[in-house]
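Sequence dictates fold. Below is an illustrative record:

_____
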Amino acid sequence: MEISTLATYHCLAFVWYFFIAYSTTQVKAEEPPSEVFLYGGQWKYLTVLNLVLQAVFYGVSFLADVLRLIKKLRCAKCVISSRDLLFSVLAFPVSTFVSISFWTLYTYNRELVYPKSLDGVIPLWLNHAMHTAVFPFALLEILALPHRYPAKKKGLILLGFVAFLYISWVLWIYSVTGEWVYPLFALFSPSGLAAFFAGSLAIIISCYNFGEFLNRMIWVG
């Protein structure tokens, strides 16, 4: 794909994710929210954090494209390295995980992750923008250009560290508010919750491996 075309695509994707992330801040509930909703605001939900992550990634990608267009190749090389690390370790696996896990749990029992009461608060288009469109965007990025993946050990350590930080954030919120960010967690015993987190980590690692496999099959052969 031509650099100018990539720059246009990455710019539009950045604007889209910035708009979606902003739209989530404008959602207003009619009833006063519980303490768990107040503590941490939107920034405790993986879905919202992923929107910010995608906006950052596409912003970095657009910057890399612009630097290549104006022939600032030394700077571009550094930005491209950051872009590829961000995509391989976080942007692709997190988007894939968010979409797959949300719709799997939604199909099983939506009240566990997205209560029906939210239908009157969050527009249908915004729900799909947050939970559905993120996966096709990630696939399109792999099809658009090749990405250099880090060594497997380095990539998985970085991904695991970020997953540990998010789980720690969720547990901290529970320790402060006495309520879980996701109602699903209330169904588990401590050992069951640990098993759930371990299973989720295994899934997101599989998402990482899937992205690496697609990138290699499409661009390396």
